[in-house]
Amino acid sequence: MPWNAWMALVIERLPELWLRTGEHLMLTGTSTGAAVLVGIPLGVCAARVRWLRGPVTGCVSILQTIPSLAMLAILLALLHRIGAVPALVALTLYALLPIVRNTLAGLEGVPATVVEAARGIGMTPPQRLMLVEIPLATPVIVAGIRTAAVVGVGIATLSAFIGAGGLGQFINRGLALSNTDLILLGAIPAAMLALVVDGSIAAFQWGLRRKRSRDTRFRAAIDRAARPLALLTPAALIVAGCLAYASTSSHSSSSASESAVTDAGTVRIGTKNFTEQLILGELMAKLIEAHAGLSVERRFNLGGTMICHGALTSGQIDLYPEYTGTALTAILKQPVIADPDEAHKTVARQYRQRFSAEWLRPFGFNNTYAITVRKSDAASEGLRTISDLAEVSGTLRAGFTAEFSERPDGYPGLRRAYGLRFREVLDLDPAIMYQAIASNEVDVICAFATDGRIAAFGLQPLRDDRGFFPPYQAAAVVRAEVLRAHPELRKVLELLAGRLDDATMQQLTFEVDEKKRRPGKVARGFLESQGLLRKRE
Amino acid sequence: MISVKQVSKSFDGGQSYAVRDVSLDVRDGETLVLLGSSGCGKTTLLKMTNRLLEPTSGTIEVDGTDVSGQDPIALRRMIGYVFQGIGLFPHMTIEENVAVVPRLLGWPAQRRRVRAHELLTTVGLDPDTYASRFPEELSGGQRQRVGVGRALAADPAYLLMDEPFGALDALTRDALQQEMLALKKRLKKTIVFVTHDIFEALILGDRIAVLHDGHLEQTGTGEEILQRPATPFVRELLAKPAQKLAAYGRIL
After folding, report:
1. pLDDT per residue over A388-413, tens digit each?
2. Contact at 8 Å (CB) between A24 and A88?
3. Which CATH superfamily is domain A369-461 in?
4. Across the A/B interface, how many CB contacts are shorter than 8 Å?
5. ipTM of this predicted complex?
6. What are all long-range contacts of A125-132, with beta carbons under 8 Å and residues at least 24 apart?
7. A268 neighbors A83 (Cβ within 8 angstroms)
8. Is A255 a residue whose pLDDT tops 70?
9. Are A261 and A317 in contact (CB under 8 A)?
10. Does the CB of B42 have a partner CB in chain A at under 8 Å?
């Protein structure tokens, strides 16, 4: 990777980097703080009440074994909201184990003679705890907090999946756009942040130590001055994070703020986590900013259909781009409808009734799944249709997105419809899927029909000769309440209706995925070329 | 005065007794030594005095009041205690260790500080050198001096000492015993002193109570016990050091 190009990216993104670092510190700091407030009393109870020990340590250990993404998904379902709240709860739960364990170990490590002396001279149990046991256990407890905070910095990168921001957002977008530079823009600062957090708590530990420095008067004086300062380092770091966050969030396009109520002048746009969605999000955002006189909050890159749908129905976002086929099968759980107009009418009617949400007119393209192989294989094996593929499927390896592997209109249904029997099926991230087929690690993927990489990577989509895939026409889904408050939104958003055909969408995603241009710039260029946005002077 | 009246203590619901039907008085201003080998119940008896342990039966009175009716926290604060394992608080300076009971009693900082320095001087440690050190920077003998200072801090009328010099080397122990002798004459405390060392008992005790298997064998001054041992156990206990002395005499 050319180093200079990366540094240029860092400089270009500096304000956002600053904001994401602030968010990241807030997420880690707040969750670690909450875990301290819960974990230390829990550890003390477990140390004091013998029968509580097993259940308490057992519970926090079980929490630790839940995979991070599963934890986020569970909390999303339980709390019915995206953003910082479920992320903070998840991070707090993860931070509990080291803090509870170390509190327990620290208290148990207090010498019996010291405990007896504390009792014998007439300390009450609370005095014994506060004056003797906690101070003696403190080094062990702080070591636990240190572990929790450093691990927290790592896990916090995952909170971007549910719209909580942080440095994970760069990683997430980098993955969605197969942009390594962007991944590193999140990963390197996150690693550095982990070191800084670790260092700040190490300084705190040093500040706590009360040993007389017997070397020189000079050193003793430095010690006296430095130790109180050292104690303040973690607090200073959190304050710095809040300041970074506060100073940039006001003029940033996206933030982790949590309001379930629509701010009168703001529209919150969500998207799923792949290139096409990001471009659609930008197209809609720019039109609203230019023509509706409203400000836009971008809550892009949410981790999948169910998260977007949940965010919309719980009022955390106002609109997002959805596909008719996806809505029909994955959300409404209904059979496939082959006619595109009929499908759109059906979902529009049902959304209005069940979710108080409106489907606007489609953008024009049909982003169906395209079962895709390498052009070279298609030629040598004579593959033109999915039926052709079924005959040779026993020797091939497939790489599908996790969503495709589970959805009824995905692999489970496709397999039955065509009698496919692959040698192996791997679950892959959308971005990695294309790399995998290009480098011969898999032979078949479920590409998106509008993906620019189909052409760029020399791939051949196969014809769905049995008409298995329903139409996937993309359109904006908007909360009815928001349309009532801002009726002009419908007209503004429908400026895009019918303007984006399959070829146009392929071209736009290609610009982002392969030419590494930013979705915002690609969207602006398109809108300008269509005369929907005045050119910048 | 401390009055122990028919006190028994069992740790296993009555199958065996660590202390069995012991009665004795500790008179005001005297030092009573509880003498016996390990496991004879002397520490158990001491701990029942300030309610670190509760007797299974019988009563203990301090100044004529049954301790079982008193708040154990208040009781412990008015009775100084020197522990077998010393038990200094490792995270506190020497000064803070000595002043910990006054702190619990809510004395103002300045008064605690003056008192701590006074006590360090009393137990033979220079406050300017030692007040701001931590326990791990001190020798075993110095730490036990601090332990004695801590027990004396609130000027209690009673002092319970549980083998305070047991873990020290012979020379340090001799020195501390001599100082203890001087100290108790000066301070006029009522002291209960637990030891398994007969010489220590003879040096420090105004009276000695010999315990064996939880029973009280004999109470009396050193002289009385030496000259008129009441039971075969006491006779044997005293015969051992006499034989040892005789052996030393031959070598020297």
Report:
1. 999 999 999 999 988 888 877 889 88
2. no
3. Osmoprotection protein (prox); domain 2 (3.40.190.120)
4. 68
5. 0.89
6. A127/B104, A129/A44, A131/B89, A131/B100, A132/B89, A132/B91
7. no
8. no
9. no
10. no
Listed by start position, the domains of chain B span: 1-78+157-168+180-221, 88-156
Cα–Cα distances (Å) from B124 to A195, A269, A491, B149, in that order, read 49, 78, 93, 10
Q: For residue B24, give the nearest of B198, B214, B237, B218 by alpha carbon.
A: B218
Q: Going by CATH, does the domain composed of A266-366+472-529 fall within 3.40.50.2300?
A: no
pLDDT band at A453 (very low <50, low <70, confident <90, very high): confident
Answering whether pTM is above 0.80, one says no
Q: How far is A146 from chain B (nearest CA, A)?
A: 21
Q: Domain B1-78+157-168+180-221's class?
A: alpha beta
Contact B87 A132 (CB under 8 A): no
Beta bridge partners of B9: B19
Mean pLDDT for all residues in chain B: 91
Residues 6+ apart with CB under 8 A from B58: B4, B5, B6, B7, B8, B21, B22, B23
Domain spans of chain A, in order of start: 27-194+236-249, 266-366+472-529, 369-461
Percent residues over pLDDT 70 in chain A: 94
A519-529 helix and A502-513 helix, angle to the nearest 10 degrees: 140
Segment A20-33 mean pLDDT: 91
Cβ–Cβ under 8 Å, residues B98 and B153: yes
Using CA atoms, how far apart are residues A184 and A278, in angstroms rounded to an integer?
A: 20
CATH top class, domain A27-194+236-249: mainly alpha
Contact call for B89 and A132, based on CB within 8 A: yes
